[in-house]
Structure formats: C-alpha cells, structure tokens
Design a protein that fits this description.
The strands form three sheets. The chain has a three-stranded mixed beta sheet. A three-stranded antiparallel beta sheet has the order 2-4-3. The protein has a two-stranded parallel ribbon with strand order 7-8. It contains 17 helices and eight strands. Helix 6 packs across helix 9, helix 13 packs antiparallel against helix 14 and helix 14 runs antiparallel to helix 15. The chain folds into four domains: about 60 residues, no CATH class; about 80 residues, no CATH class; about 70 residues, no CATH class; about 180 residues, no CATH class. The protein is mainly alpha-helical.
C-alpha cells in the first residue's frame, strides 16, 4: 500500500483522457479476474444472456479474456461504440484492466508506485488532454485496487552490480534530474546521461552505485554543469556513424516497428514466413529493403532513407516536445526495467530508453519523408511514439541478447554522440 503521494511517480505533464474511440475495446485483448466476472454476470445487459453466451474465455489461473463479437469488438460494446457495463452498471463494475487503460500502474517491492500511459490510446500525449497531475485521485484509487491483483515489481541495477531497489532510487533521482532541465538542449542532456551511466558501468565505480545516497543527485548535477561546454562541442563535432553502427541502428528500427514480434507472436508463423521476415530485416539493416514489408502500416521506405532523408528534415517544436514528454514519462515512472519490461536491469533499460529517442525521430522522419514533407510534425512523431512505446514493453525482439549488445554499443558515448547529431541535435 502506498502511504503518500511522494511514493507515486509519474510525469505530471503527460496527458491522457478517454475520447470513447473504442480502439482499446476492439484492438486489445482484455483480461478480467474471476471476482470481476461474477459481479458482471449478476447484472443484466440488453442483448446479452450469460447462460447461453460465452462472454469470458479462461486464460490461466484466475484470469479470463473478454470475448469479441463477430465484428472483432468487445461483446459489451453497444451499437454506439460505448461500454454497456459502464453505461448500465457504472465505471466501478468494469474490470480493472478496462478502468486503468490507457494508464499503466505498477507497484514496486519497496512500496513505491509508478504510473505511465500507453501510446496505443490516441488520447495519450495529445494537446488539450487531461494531465496526469489532475488525475491523482483516480490514480490513488486504482492503486488501492491493484493491491489485490498485482505482484510487486523488482529490479537490480545491473547483472555485475546487482544493487537493490532502495539504492537504485537515489541513482534514478540523479539521472532523472540530468534530463529534467529544459534550459539545456535535449541532445546535450541525453549525451550527459550516456557519459554518466557509462562511467558508472566501470567495475571500479560499482561501490559508488552501491553506496548512493541523498548527495548523489547534487554530485550528478554539478558534473553536468562542469562538462556542458565539452558536451556541446562533442555533439557539434561528432563524426559520421561508421557503417557497422548504421547497420545496428537500422536493425533496431525494425525491432521497434515490426508487428509480428509483439508478445512472441512469431511462434505462430510458418517457417517460410519467418525466413522471409528475417530476409527483409537483413535487407533494411544493410540499407535496402522496405519497411512496409515488415509492417503494412509503415511507409514504403528503404534503410538508406533513414540516414539520407531524415537528418535534413526540419523538426517542429510540438514534435520535439511530444518526444520529450514520452522520454520523461518513461523516466519518471521507471517503466523501462523490471518485470514489466522484459526483466531488464536498470542499466539495460536505461540504455534502451536512450536509444528510443533517436529511434522515434528516425521513424517519424521516415513517415514525413515518404509523404514528401520537409517538416517532421507532431502527427509524424505521435505515430512513431506508438511504435516505440508498444515495442519497448511488448516486443520479444528486445529480450534478445543480440539486441542488448546492439543497444549497448550504440548507447555508449563514442557512438551515441553521432546518433544524436544525426537525428536529435
């Protein structure tokens, strides 16, 4: 149980408010607990007879999946696209999964709670939406309900330095502070974090992480101020990425956009289909191929376009702000590590978050370039963030050891400077 609001972590500027679009009721698989099902089945709803209709399909343990109708929509969605359970019985009778979406709320083993939002919902991150800072009452109520349903999350700093969660909190506050100062260009903040994290990955620095305390944040910010001019010079003079790094980055982009590897769905594919996909990934990574063949909702664009067409685009301020909101939301919630993000260590997850920013710019730029636009707009960035956010937590690609190695190489300061100069600077 969370004792006070100081233990609830979220980015206060992120917006999320249901617009009754019905996307989540048709595109997502929604689970319900047996206790929730019993409450719903005790009620009466027009056109639904629980005695003859199978509205819930058992999944495993205490969980079932809400069935879909012939149109592929939730059986409880009415003709106007609204939830029958909500309309007749009220919001509190809806399954917790429905009530929470698009919010993602996690309980941690040290008593803290973190909140983020899924960009699959078109309301998330949109101008004019309701900031999470105005939803604290609902967040607290949902958190109390989670006490009965969800296991506590755990994380370690790194495999060679498995620092416990309470020490990670001090480190995390410092790293978060490095990203928070918007008077410093985003690329400079990201690069500074890359340098600091890389420094702390050294074996002789392990005790620094293990003994981190309240003064760790002050030391990190003092270091940021001292090296700011060096950071800006490094980014301005960064060399063009070598061919091997460009191949690694393009391969990572395919992992962010592929729709066949979300929640291990590749296992249901035929062997020939999997070979064909692997071939397209290889071609795109080498600079050829077609992104559209990996995901039909992506533009028909080659790997070469990534480094040839995207860097010359102008980026609108609202597009840049949208990407920064995503970054800060993930950072504040710490939803890049632990059991909800492929059991990544803090170090692995943070590196992936560092790479996610230039990846979002690259994917958004490919959408813009494919339409002949010279401006990377909010619309392009918002679409890219849907891919990046979904893949971050659900794509089996980011469980692979080879993926971790690519991310580690690209997030290291030597290559990360070139990546930021190409897409973010």
């Amino acid at each position: 149980m969370v004792e006070n609001d100081e233990n609830i972590h979220f980015y206060r500027g992120l917006t999320a408010s249901c617009s009754n679009c019905g996307n989540c009721c048709s595109e997502l698989t929604v689970t319900a607990m047996s206790a929730e099902i019993k409450k719903i089945e005790r009620s009466k709803y027009p056109g639904i007879d629980f005695k003859i209709q199978q509205c819930f399909k058992h999944l495993k343990g205490d969980f079932s999946v809400i069935a879909k109708n012939d149109a592929g929509k939730c059986v409880f969605m009415d003709d106007s696209g609204l939830c029958t359970v909500h309309r007749i019985s009220g919001v509190k009778l809806k399954p917790l999964a429905c009530r929470m979406f698009p919010l993602v709320i996690h309980r941690w083993a040290d008593g803290h709670v973190s909140v983020d939002a899924r960009y699959l919902c078109p309301s998330v991150g949109m101008p004019g939406g309701i900031p999470l800072s105005e939803q604290t009452g609902e967040i607290r109520e949902l958190t109390r309900l989670l006490d009965n349903y969800e296991k506590e999350a755990k994380a370690i700093y790194s495999v060679p330095n498995p620092v416990r969660l309470d020490r990670i909190r001090f480190v995390h506050r410092a790293y978060q502070a490095l990203l928070a100062d918007k008077n410093i260009p985003l690329a400079s903040r990201l690069y500074t974090l890359s340098v600091v994290q890389d420094f702390h990955a050294r074996k002789d620095m392990f005790p620094v992480i293990r003994n981190a305390g309240a003064g760790f944040e002050h030391e990190a910010l003092d270091f940021q101020r001292k090296i700011l001019n060096v950071v800006e010079d490094t980014l301005n003079n960064a060399s063009r990425l070598p061919a091997s790094a460009r191949i690694d980055f393009r391969n990572l982009l395919t992992g962010f956009v592929r729709d066949d590897i979300v929640q291990n769905s590749t296992h249901s594919q035929s062997l020939s289909k999997r070979f064909k996909t692997a071939w397209e990934v290889l071609r795109f990574g080498l600079g050829g191929g077609d992104l559209n063949k990996l995901n039909s909702s992506c533009p028909a664009t080659s790997g070469t376009d990534c480094f040839a067409k995207v860097p010359v685009l102008e980026v609108s301020q609202d597009a840049a702000s949208a990407c920064e909101d995503f970054l800060m939301s993930r950072m504040c919630s710490m939803h890049f590590c632990g059991r909800y993000s492929h059991h990544l260590t803090y170090e692995q997850g943070l590196r992936q978050l560092l790479i996610a920013v230039p990846a979002a710019y690259a994917i958004a730029g490919l959408f813009a370039a494919a339409k002949g636009d010279k401006l990377l707009s909010f619309k392009h960035m918002r679409r890219a963030l849907t891919y990046v956010d979904t893949a971050f937590s659900l794509s089996a690609y980011f469980k692979l050891g080879v993926t971790h190695k690519r991310i580690s190489r690209l997030a290291a300061p030597r290559l990360y400077a070139g990546l930021l100069k190409t897409f973010v600077n």
